Write the structure tokens for this entry.
Amino acid sequence: MYESPAIKIARQIGFWFLIIVIAIFTLFPFYWAVAGSFKSENEIKSPPATYFPETVVFNNYWGTAVDPILNETVERGVFRNAGFLRGLFNSTVVSSLTVLISLVVGAFAAYAIGRLKFRGRTLMLYLVLAMTMFPLISILSGLFQITRELGVFGSLSALIITYPIFTLPFTVWVLVSFFRGLPGELEQAALVDGATPFQTFYMILLPLTAPALVTTGLLAFISAWNEYLLAVTFTITNSDAFTVPVEIVNFSGSISREEPIAEPLAATVIVTLPLVVLVLIFQRRIIQGLTAGAVKG
Amino acid sequence: MSENKVKREATEQQRTIGNVIAVLFAVLGVGLVGVFLFNVLTNPNVSDAPSTNATILNFLDGYGIIIPLLVFGLGFTFLNYARGLLARDIITSGWAQLTMFWSMVGSIVIIFIYLFQVITTINSESSSRVEPDFLLIGGLIVFGAVTGAIWWWLNQNREIVYNAGEETIASRESLTAWNLLIPTVVILILVAARPLERTFIGSLTDRTFAGGDQEVNFVGFQNYTELLGFRFDNISCTTDDAGECVTEVVEEEVDASESITVDLNSIAELEPTALDVGLDFFEPDTINTLIAENTDFANALATVAQAEIEENTGEDVGEVTVNSLLEGNTLEVTVDGEIQEIAFTERLTNLEGVDLSGIDYNYGEHVSLGGLNTYRIRSRTLREQLDAITIAEYDFENDETIDDVGVDGFADFETMNVTVTRIETRNEVVYPNVRDAVGESYRNYSRVSTFDIFGSRWVFSARDAAFFVAVGNTLFFTFFAVIAELILGMIIALVVNAKFVGQGLMRAAMLVPWAIPTVVSAKLWEYMLIDNRTGLINDLLIRLNFIDSPIAWLANSDFQIWSLIFVDVWKTTPFMALLLLAGLQTIPSDVYEAADVDGAGPIRQFFYMTLPLLRPTIAVALVFRTLDSIRAFDVFQVLLGRQLQSMATYNQFVLVEQQDFGYASAIGVTIFMIILIFTIVYVRALGVDTD
């Protein structure tokens, strides 16, 4: 079809306009958080809202402020907030261990389901698929009870033990489809050379799955890092075991009787930043991993 | 490798050890079952239960079904292994080796978790600290060492000692497969199957965590009847003697926020009274201007200051002049030629005892906008005066009778935001109280909603109204959120599908809302939805003239659930778009080229080609998103807490806050059933390929 140059230009303008609208829609809240984290508590609380910080302050991250009630200078900022720092540490420990467990255990299972023949294979596959869709909330009270019986309730171990319930099935599912995509000649060659199935797995196939391991590890990390339901239920009695999401919800500032806004915004920036960086670096892989189950190429 | 193929003869010693291992397996099998039975029989809940029924039920509550099955299954399997090992069966020896290996790994893992537990709680308060139990650790170490040694020995000598039978490729594969699957199976049993079973069994009990060790009773389906009991009642209107429905005049206030323009001079006409003027309402600059320019005001202030000083010192002082108001609420005054600073007191703040009515005091000139807005809130008299002026002006301009106005604030010196209230009256049919109409049988029910069908009134009520409300909220939320996400996601996917510079960047940007924690996004939106102009949304809408005064998005029940839907849509639409985008990119471009040649326009192309071709992707995306929304927890919990609950937050609330394990389990099972039915119906209806 023939298009006059004017229509072409109009279409281009319309297209870029839409792109910009979409970009603003997705990214503006982050700008708002970043801008807010550099505003003073006073500025952020006085209407109308400002779209740029009038004066850039850093004491939401690291600094001091005058406490009007105690009338003395106190430390202020998320990096001086012991609770928040402990939350970061806890989340890192829990998420890393969850990823480690899911990857090791999940790669084993995925190889078995994806490449080996044994009785019960289809059953295992369907079990794993059912688990990926499983509503966690349904077994919350069962998990609650079991963490109490195991004596881990209120500690980080409760989270490390229970988090594989949502990371493991997903990891297995994605890795199975990856293992199935590898050419079968590899194993036959290994078999001819006298390798056992396990040797074939860890010497030949596992190195090949490194990209898929990175992707699924990343997805598992993000979902463990973001998890809130189990974290808030199992650590409610012990603030020492709060993970970052719980810490952010219960965020309290260092100034007495102040309900800070700018400071938790700084906290959200700190929590979001590593995820944004990871997403920017691994964008292509994450999308592949996410759509692996949903779209058939 | 090849030397392994040659069958070597086992030495006498190796055979003896092989037999010992077989015996060990037999002991392990019998011991496992024995320890379990001993544990069950010495459990007072089971052995001393008053009736056979109670015994069975307490057994189920304590041990479930999975654990006994596992114990007996493993016990039998181990005995079988012992038999096979004595017969020197090579395949059995492989499974024995597997068992030993994973027993060793299992004990190491438990030791690690235990030590982790000890280390991470070492600084905690004594209540949550885990004291190391050396007997347990020692036992685990011994067990791990023994099983590890057996595994090691089997690994070295298995093929020599056990030479009956033949290992095939298939049997080796099967062995390897299960070797690799054991950890997954164990984890799934521990964190999925067993909790699921506990939840099911627990939902039949009245177990609570509140108040220490309480006796647990089986209550059958009582939790479910309490949770799900509902009824519909048709109630008829109250009739008078003639049998007609009684009607009643209902007055309803209609609020309409408006910005109206007010002549500044009319503000200047306001009469200040003693109570109206307060210094803390104003910026120091304003007060200082007043002090400098308005002698009457300065004198009035000085009078109060004098009274204050006299009261403080207990002596009479001479002439007092007020110099200025300093930062930090102190007043600089000159007393008998000496400069003093006095702190603000209640008396000074309110200018008590001073009649300001004679003072020429022009609000319009001296009072800053912020001061005036604060003043509005603090001073009832001023507010009434403003209201009177406003009503007069409003009536005059709009020629409409209004019943009340409320001044919300000053947008600028000429524009005032006003809530105008009109009272509308209408006749409404009177219905009796549901309880009165239905009678005693209604006792345990409370109303969920009322609706009219064909002129008759129906009341839907439930034993647990909160649960039904939560289910309603969740379904409403899911329906609108998923539809909005699908439509918006589709638009975004179609736009981003075009080839353009920066497509990769755009896709990365779209991933960001998905990647950040839901909690963080909810918190972020909580600040943006604040009910005044410090919130982005209110400020933006006011600037764009969509609304006149800020809206309490999260407190006003008309907007609450829509705010949640909006936050959810923002967070998940980009993800939906990415799924659809991936689907779009699998459609070969020659399809479109053919359509172009045939002259089909873009809209026809979308509805007749893109949509049908994308159908599988849409179906999968819809299923994913719907199941996700139905179990929504984070966004509800963070933004609205207990004000408006979803099924998940209600369940968590009953479990954690009310500590009612049995009831919470029943809710969990019900949610599970709802989601299961939903999934089956949905997957069938959409024709998702489950393969």
